[in-house]
Amino acid sequence: MRAKRPRWQYPLIIALALLALTVLLVPAMMRTESELRIRTNQHGLSLPDGFYVYQRLDERGIRIKSITPDGDGLVIRLDSPEQQLLAREALETILPPGYIIALSETPAPTQWVRKFARAPLNLG
């Protein structure tokens, strides 16, 4: 014969399971991406070529996730904050005067957020 559990144990088990799930998921949801933004501060100066920037940073062992144009600048996504600082120092020596190299950290969208952002909303 199987012993019955007291009723108060079920909410406790559910609460512990939710707590464990929260502890596992929150760090992944709060992760940030390290980024650099390159803009010009002189009229008539064009942005550097993304491939040129990639090659110069790669030569210095700086790991790049992506380089994308964004409005009036380039956004460089890097693996870590350390790589971000190294890339900024390198770009200050690589690029001629007239460029603004700004550090930024944006929250990285989690996989499920990306999935919902791409999916069209079908209502009705």
Automatic annotation (TrEMBL):
Q: Which NCBIfam families match?
A: PRK10629.1 (NF007915)
Purpose: Modulates the activity of the EnvZ/OmpR two-component regulatory system, probably by directly modulating EnvZ enzymatic activity and increasing stability of phosphorylated OmpR.
Named from the GO MF annotations, one term is: protein kinase binding
Q: Which family does the similarity line name?
A: Belongs to the MzrA family.
Q: Enumerate the subcellular locations listed in this protein's record, separating them with semicolons.
A: Cell inner membrane
Q: Which domain of life is it from?
A: Bacteria
- Native source organism of the sequence: Serratia odorifera DSM 4582
Q: What is this protein called?
A: Modulator protein MzrA
Gene behind this protein:
mzrA
Keywords (alphabetical) are: Cell inner membrane, Cell membrane, Membrane, Transmembrane, Transmembrane helix
Indicate the principal place this protein occupies in or around the cell.
membrane
Known Gene3D superfamilies for this protein? 3.30.70.260
HAMAP family, per the entry: Modulator_MzrA
The membrane topology term of the UniProt record is:
Single-pass membrane protein
Cite the SecD export protein N-terminal TM domain residue spans from the record.
4-103
Q: How does it assemble?
A: Interacts with EnvZ.
What does the entry list under GO cellular component? Answer: plasma membrane
